[in-house]
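Researcher: Good morning. I'm working through a list of sequences from a screen, and I'd like to move beyond sequence-only analysis. For each chain I'm collecting a predicted structure so we can compare shapes side by side. This is the next one on the list. No need for commentary yet; just the structure.
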Amino acid sequence: MQFSGEELTFKRVFNYIFGLYLITLGVAFSIKSGLGSAPVSSIPYAMDLIWLINIGVATFIFHAVLVLIEWILLRDDFKRKHFLQVFVGVLFGVFTSFSVSLMEFIPPADTFLLALLMSILSIFFIALGLFFYVPTNIIPLSVEGVTQAIAIVSNKPFPKVKVFI
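Model: Good morning. Structure tokens for this chain:
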């Protein structure tokens, strides 16, 4: 089976899913630290706090809205396969809920040192997750998809748009 011009092997799929999970574990550590949320989940975390909806559901809603924005921006250039980002959003949401629920077993960060340690663990797990996820080049998270769409529509380089986003 081919995707993105490369053979879709068990190793690539495993690394993709494992990487996504590690990213959500990093998100959970950042939330547990009490020092804020990882950027990838800052809006879903705010939705969770404001509307009291599950972080995983908020994550899915956020990713679905980003795919909708991507569709609006790209119009005819939006390919049907881009809708797969919605399913990745579901997976990312489930992983986020699971990872946050795992953090219930860890005592609260009641000292700055413990909060800092959790933030460092967050950075580590997100970086490790990206190490596994990015090279697979399977289906991007919708955050990357909408960033690419903005880069295309604005005729700006992806790295500059990524910093802005």
